[in-house]
Design goal:
With 473 residues, this protein is an alpha+beta fold. The protein is built from 10 helices and 12 strands. Among the domains are: 110-192, Phosphorylase Kinase, domain 1 (2-Layer Sandwich), CATH 3.30.200.20; 196-353 and 361-416, Transferase(Phosphotransferase), domain 1 (Orthogonal Bundle), CATH 1.10.510.10.
Length: 473
């Protein structure tokens, strides 16, 4: 029998308490062990059911067990199923993608830009060269003309902002932001600054562009226009002064003051669009339903201007413009332009008797004497673009695939395009002897084309044209 410790308490009550505490600890230990045993059994049963399910195919057939997917890179070997599930849920929550969305906020003030010099004034705004004070970048700052807008913000300004925001293309001028001045009618468009416009370059060049350079310019302009047309946007004022170029040989379409969306079938539109020298004949004859064909006519006029260094059709007014068009293309007839007599202003047109004769080709080729250095393929493209019948003109997409751009000389790479002295600081000297674009709200004049081929009324009489009035002594 073991000897009793000398520190033991001989009190029976104390010994009873100690014995009770030992029994309670032993019961808790057994309960914890039993709970852990049940958890292990449940886990084994769950694993067994999962293995049984994995051993069957989608139709209940037996198949190889699927490979266990690792849910997280942080999962370590030996982690329990509960930990795997928790890590997977956490990983799933953190993998949600969040996309930035536009938020409403105030426009920046125009005082954030330092205006350097004036460039030019157009029909729908004043353009200046400016510098962003925060970044030091040189930009083009266009102040919209809101003087003649008693009904609120003009629709031309809204269309320009809307179309520029949608037309994100390498050959369309980039609209950075819209800024405000101190008054509600001080609205400015901040765009990328480009050093030149084609009109100023053609006026100052001693020789016209080389054929390879003309192809480079045309491909870029038609490429930008094809994107606009694919977005259901008509520019409606294409001309060389609205085509900007930087010193890297990049051409960008600018000035969207007359641009607008259209549909199919085209809605009823105003006929008073496009600067006079680049206006299609159907517009001059009063058409109020038209499509992208009017832009392709303007491309033809620009093509001819690049070849000759001078505007191709410089009419003094609408009647004189029609006369010059028919002198180049020949008078219309039922073969070259079916249905032209249904246009409002065509009823007064007195055609010569020879106009009924059928012409070779449809559309007929333009006179070779006007473009002696143009290849046959190039003359065919120019004749198609300047076809009297709108449906005979190629689309922008067809124009890009024309054989003219595949024959020698090939288009010159932009990197090899010649550079020109920058006009930065001298933009105020730009003066283009070109009629202005029609202004919004201006009514189309009543025209009489009876004297186009005979010198009767309506010829060179000094009547009002679109955007200007010619006075003869």
């Amino acid at each position: 029998m073991a000897s009793k410790s000398r520190w033991a308490n001989d009190d029976p009550e104390t010994e009873a308490i100690i014995a009770q505490q030992k029994r309670e600890k032993e019961e808790k230990r057994r309960a914890k062990a039993e709970k852990q045993r049940k958890l292990d059994e449940a886990s084994k049963a769950r694993q067994a059911r999962q293995d049984a399910n994995n051993a069957q195919g989608p139709n209940g057939e037996s198949g190889p067990p699927t490979k266990r997917r690792r849910i997280s890179n942080d999962q370590e070997a030996g982690s329990s199923d509960a930990e795997v599930v928790r890590v997977g849920q956490k990983q799933k929550r953190s993998s949600l993608l969040r996309f930035p969305v536009g938020v409403w906020g105030p426009c920046r003030h125009v005082d954030n830009f330092e205006r350097l010099n004036h460039i030019e004034e157009g029909s729908y705004g004043w353009v200046s060269r400016a510098k962003d004070i925060s970044t030091g970048e040189v930009v083009a700052l266009k102040k919209l003309k809101l003087d003649n807008a008693p009904d609120g913000f003009p629709v031309t300004g809204l269309r320009e902002i809307q179309t520029l925001m949608e037309a994100r293309h390498a050959n369309v001028v980039y609209l950075r932001e819209v800024v405000m001045g101190n008054k509600l009618d001080d609205v400015f468009l901040v765009m990328d600054f480009l050093e030149h416009d084609l009109k100023a370059l053609l006026d100052e060049m001693r020789e016209p562009f080389l054929p390879s350079e003309i192809k480079t310019v045309l491909l870029q302009v038609v490429g930008g226009l094809e994107f606009l047309h694919s977005q259901w946007i008509m520019h409606r004022d294409l001309k060389t002064s609205n085509l900007l170029m930087n010193n890297r040989g990049e051409i960008k379409i600018a000035d969207f003051g007359m641009a607008r969306y259209y549909g199919d079938p085209p809605p009823k539109l105003t006929q008073l669009v496009v600067t006079l020298w680049y206006r299609a004949p159907e517009l001059l004859l009063g058409a109020d339903k038209y499509g992208t064909e009017i832009d392709m006519w303007s491309i033809g006029c620009i093509f001819g201007e690049l070849l000759t260094k001078e505007p191709l059709l410089q009419g003094k007014n609408e009647v004189d413009q029609v006369s010059k068009i028919f002198a180049l293309t020949g008078p219309p007839n039922s073969q070259t332009w079916p249905g032209f007599r249904s246009l409002p202003n065509a009823k007064s047109l007195r055609l010569p008797s020879t106009s009924a004769a059928s012409s070779a080709g449809n559309p007929p080729l333009l006179p070779r004497s006007r473009f002696p250095y143009l290849t046959n393929s190039g003359l065919g493209l120019l004749s198609g673009l300047l076809a009297l019948n709108p449906s005979s003109r190629p689309t922008a997409q067809q124009c890009l695939a024309h054989p003219y751009f595949l024959e020698d000389p090939r288009p010159k790479p932009k990197e090899m395009f010649p550079t020109f002295p920058s006009k930065a600081g001298m933009e105020r000297k730009r003066r283009h002897h070109t009629p202005e674009a029609p202004k919004r709200g201006q009514e189309a004049p009543e025209l009489d084309f009876a004297g186009v081929f005979g010198g009767a009324p309506g010829g060179d009489t000094g009547e009002a044209g679109a955007g200007f009035t010619l006075r003869l002594g």
